[in-house]
Amino acid sequence: MNISVDQSRDDDFRRRSYSSQSSAKSDRRPRTLSLQTLDELQSFIAALTMKLLNIPPDHLDRAITMALPRIGQLMEADRASVFTFAGENINGTNEWCAGDAQSRTALRRHARFRARGPHMARIMRGEIVHIQRVRDLPDYATEEWLLSGDGLQSVLAIPIIVRGSVIGVVVLDAWRSETNWPVEMIELLKTTAAIFGSALARRTAEQALLNEKEFFSNVVETMGSLVIVIAPDGTCLRANRAFLEITGYSAAELRGAGWQRVIPDVSREAARRALKSALGGERVHFEGMLLSRNGEQRTILWSGAVFRSSSGRPAYVVVTGIDLTETLLLREQVEQSRRIDSLGRVAATIAHEFNNVLMAIQPSAYRIFRHPSHESEVQRCGERILRAVKRGSQITMEVTRFAQPADPARQKIDARQWLHALVDEMRPVLEERPGRPVIVEEASDAEGPVVEADPIQLHQVFSNLILNAADAMPTGGTITVAVSTTSAHEHLPSSELRPSAWAHWRVTDTGTGIPPAVLDRIFEPLFTTKRQGTGLGLAVAHQIVRLHGGDVSVDTALGRGTTFHVFLPVAAAISEGDLP
User: What pLDDT, in 10s, does the model give residues 389-431?
Assistant: First the structure.
């Protein structure tokens, strides 16, 4: 039965409807949601999400119908319904009724619902409708489709919204008593509606994909990112326009060919591991090279995910790629520009430091020349000369390391064992330092990560950090060093080029902390707060870590100490025989 409501009547309907809800709020508090019920609801919704994630399209209606009784019981409703819309028609109905609650299934024949009053209009605008006292509404309101049924006490309706459009509604009805559903229940029902919407949208998309080939051409073909679809056996099924343009191959040439055709030798092992992980259900990310038809190689950030058939088996892996070649080239140009900009400061520092060296050598040499027969005087002057020469040699070495960084000679290293050996080596050095004693402690995991790194360069990094930590404790203190494996940490590098696991080193002191003004410049070349410092120690350490694909960050608090965090990518799985 169609209902026609003129404007004045509609205004009266809206006014009395809202005043009914306000009065209900004033004399009926929302029921309290117990922690047990909340936990059961959340657990059920989580299980429902997993069930609907990969359910075959033809099983979706049955799964929704089977879920409604539990939803109705947990939400303390007498009727739970899911209606889907097609234009202005009810396209589908899933329903559960408890006891004497009347079914709405017969109402599917009422095709037009937009004109059935302001409540349905609100739903179609994406608003939640929560009517706590249906009996307070005007008589003609019960003729509205949403409020139909003798004895209906309360209604809660949540629109199902997909990509900004309302495609259906989840409705809870109370018949035995008035119900004021608490906010927590409403939020959980919103989540349930979103889950249904996602599953319904996926079913629609899958059915459309089976019937139309425009999905790939209209969406994937217009993407600027590279897209290639790979079968479980490693053959290429199809690629988008951007992928074909950058590689120079035609679609026919790639279809049925192995993925190795477009991946050079240097990246094939990483690509093989990534494809295996993707087929296992992981969403993979890795940086690798792409080989074009003319032999050109480009650096690509790859991401891949598996799509499964209705039987649950892997159907294909969709791999997307972002071309980083120009970005990396620009980054290198920026780094080179920074090094060039710092050459002037390097030259000034060298001139200043070597002038100090010469000023230390000159008077000593003059005294030797004036008093060649005084052995003790000659010995003291000779020691001064040696110290000055050593200082000059140190400056030369550090400037060379910064200006011409060497490529890491990588080998697989057990990070925990390597760090333990370094600490044993550093303890005597720290014990010989003047001043209060410095204690070095270890706090690593029982099993440390394995990294591919240059042990000599790592030694330079961590010996510098440990010595800096000792310098930060002029009255003595404790240095704690540790290493562990992590996949998520607030200090992880912010770049999108993230491996799945990192080796996380920490060097913590109990010293004075780093002032904010100094903290912003600690990795700046030639910046130092030490009387005898060159300002290159931390700059070189940071440079070495970045060359290894990692990063360095700092935590500090004045008067409480400092922690340096060093991250390096964990090496691929290896056997014990691969370790040195």
Answer: 666 666 666 666 665 666 788 889 898 888 888 888 888 777 7
pLDDT (tens digit per residue) in 561-570: 999 999 998 8
Consecutive H or E run containing 407: none
- Evaluate whether 193 touches 81 at the Cβ level (below 8 Å): no
Tokens, residue 174? 């109370």
Domain presence at residue 337: no
378: CB partners within 8 A, 6+ apart: 368, 371, 372
Picking from 427, 550, 560, 565, the residue whose alpha carbon sits closest to that of residue 490 is 565
DSSP three-state, residue 101: coil
Question: Same structural domain for residues 448 and 530?
Answer: yes
Task: Specify the long-range contacts of residues 185-192, CB closer than 8 Å, at least 24 apart.
Answer: 185/33, 185/41, 185/75, 186/128, 186/130, 186/156, 186/158, 188/38, 188/41, 188/42, 188/45, 189/71, 189/75, 189/156, 189/158, 190/128, 190/158, 191/45, 192/45, 192/48, 192/71, 192/158
Specify the pairing of strand 165-174 against strand 79-86.
Answer: antiparallel
- Most confidently modeled of 16-30, 124-138, 144-158, 419-433? 124-138
Amino acid letter, residue 117: G
Give Cα 168 distance to the centre of its chain. Answer: 33
Q: Which run of H or of E encompasses 164?
A: none
Q: Which of 462, 482, 472 is nearest to 548 (CA)?
A: 462
Choice between 378 and 175, residue whose per-residue pLDDT is larger = 175
Do 249 and 318 lie in a common domain?
yes
Say how many residues make up the chain: 580
Q: What is the CATH number of the domain that holds 111?
A: 3.30.450.40
Q: Are residues 460 and 380 in the same domain?
A: no
Please give the residue range of the domain that contains residue 476: 411-578
Distance between CA atoms of residues 570 and 445, nearest Å: 15
Instruction: Tell whether 288 and 428 lie within a shared domain.
Output: no
CB atoms within 10 A of CB 393: 11
* CB 561, CB 510: distance < 8 Å: yes
Instruction: Say if 527 falls within a structural domain.
Output: yes
Q: What distances in angstroms separate CA 283 from CA 30, 141, 240, 518, one per listed residue?
A: 42, 51, 20, 41
Q: What's the number of domains the chain is made of? A: 4
Tokens at 512, concatenated: 């004075």
Contact between residue 346 and residue 403 where contact means Cβ atoms under 8 Å apart:
yes
DSSP state of 142: G
Is 333 within a domain?
A: no
Report pLDDT digits (tens) over 47-93. 888 888 778 888 888 899 899 999 998 888 988 989 888 776 777 78
Nearest CA among 391, 383, 356 for reference residue 367: 383
